[in-house]
Amino acid sequence: MTRTAAARARANIALVKYWGKRDLRLNLPATGSLSMTCSSLVTETRVTFDDAAPRDEVLADGAAAPEAFRQRASRFLDRVRSLAGMAAFARVETRATFPVASGLASSSSGFAALALASTRAAGLDLPLPALAALAREGSGSAPRSLLGGFVELPAGMSPDGSDCVPVQVAAADAWDVRLVIAVNGAGEKAVGSTEGMERSRATSPFYPAWIARGAGDLEAAKAALAARDLPALGRVAEANAFSMHAVALSSNPPILYWNAATVDAVNRVRALRAEGAGAWVTIDAGPHVKVLCGPGDAAAVADALRGVAGVTEVRVERPGEGAEVLG
Q1: What is the pLDDT of residues 1-53, one digit of tens each?
Q2: Burial class (CB in 10 A: 0-12, 13-18, 19+), 30
């Protein structure tokens, strides 16, 4: 007997980031975060449970996924099997429209899509808190990709994570802004996000100050979003990103996610802003530069970033919708 379902989810880019976990086992963030779900950074995943399958199989873009990822997905599916009271192994087929494992939040869309597709294939229709808790076990940012537009993920205080549930702060069509992404590196990053967070927590002298500023940055960003104040949101997002990377750089050994193109792209955006453009930088755990701006500045920002040596692709994103079942 086989049971199948497919789902689509979009990656989200954090404007106020979390960098550190308050519970590693439950993958609970140490601080709250605020993100924008992107319109075209899409992962589509189909899950087929098959009583005759000898083990879980994972295909990424039509080819067998690396064994480490297959095992990670299989552990995730064990949780779904436990929730559904079933034992069948599954075939997972996933495709992404953008580079994965490189700092473009592919795990957020990947595990949001896997959570939704696998639970539906297993006959489950989980409410948002339960679905978010499951998605979070795969990736700490995945709960935000379950919802569209601008999404807050509170850190919460409950030991079981029951109050760490994503909330849509503004719908996808509530504010017409852009996030211009300069892709400037290929392949997996040398230090994964969880490893980097744990190293920072254990060794960075700036980590306590980073945790202490989180609540203030989140509230300032939410106030700017409510007022549709792009400069205020941009300033918070840029300062928050640079602070996160300061923590990573001050870890032992230091964690450097940037490359030469990252620095050149940041300088190009600063030059544009000095000329009057409303554009602000954010950078996740990877080399790619994302630029928050209004629709009127997006073309100029994109053109400027295309001229940066090492930038291989420029994408212009708008707020996107949440995860959805495809069938």
Answers
A1: 899 999 999 999 999 999 999 999 999 999 999 999 999 999 999 999 999 99
A2: middle
Q: What's 65's DSSP letter?
A: P
CATH number, domain with residue 298: 3.30.230.10
Please measure the distance between the N-terminal and C-terminal CA atoms of the chain and give it in whole angstroms. Answer: 18
Lowest mean pLDDT among 143-152, 186-195, 298-307: 186-195
Tokens representing residue 232 in the block: 């205020």
* Those residues with Cβ within 8 angstroms of residue 153's Cβ, 6 or more apart along the chain or in another chain: 18, 29, 32, 33, 34, 35, 141, 143, 144, 164, 165, 166, 167
Give yes or no for a cis peptide into 127 (omega within 30° of 0): no
Q: Indicate whether 102 pLDDT > 60.
A: no
Distance of CA 234 to the CA centre of its chain: 18
Instruction: Tell me which residue range forms the domain holding 26.
Output: 1-327
The tally of domains found in the chain comes to 1
CA–CA–CA angle 278, 282, 287 (5° rounding):
130
